[in-house]
Amino acid sequence: MIHVLAVITAKPGRRAELLEKFHANIPAVRAEAGCIEYGPAIDADGITTAAFGPDSFVAIEKWESPEALAAHAKSPHMTAYGERTADLVASRAIHVLKPA
């Protein structure tokens, strides 16, 4: 299994718009072969000690294999998502992990 934590930072004040587009893409991603889990998370108010901030969210993903993750990255709906959101994203840091 492969775990992915993608920290995505929107341009200032545009996180809600970016999350709307992310949510619209979720059904296509979850239908992909090898997708175990895929969804966004934001800071929990008042209980976090290291906040990502008001413009960021974390995509939390689990994939059956590195091959499934590679296919996901090349899928047509992810290419289209990237094009639709290019003007909304300030930065992204993608962390690919394996169970310890």
How would you describe the overall organization of this protein?
The protein is an alpha+beta fold and 100 residues long. It has a single domain (2-43, 63-97), classed as Alpha-Beta Plaits, CATH 3.30.70.100. The protein has helices at 15-30, 66-74, 76-85; strands at 2-10, 35-41, 56-63, 89-97. A four-stranded antiparallel beta sheet has the order 2-3-1-4. The mean pLDDT is 96. One of its GO terms (molecular function) is monooxygenase activity. Keywords: Monooxygenase, Oxidoreductase. InterPro entries: ABM_dom, AI-2_Isomerase_LsrG, Dimeric_a/b-barrel.
Give Rg in angstroms: 14 Å
CATH architecture verdict: 2-Layer Sandwich
Mean pLDDT value = 96
* Number of structural domains: 1
Architecture blueprint of SSEs:
Blueprint: E1 2-10, H1 15-30, E2 35-41, E3 56-63, H2 66-74, H3 76-85, E4 89-97
Antiparallel strand pairs: 1-3, 1-4, 2-3
Helix pairs in contact: 1-3
Based on the model shown, name its key terms.
single chain, 100 residues, alpha+beta, Alpha-Beta Plaits, 4-stranded antiparallel sheet, 35% helix, Dimeric_a/b-barrel, monooxygenase activity
Concise account of the structure shown:
This protein has 100 residues and is of the alpha+beta class.
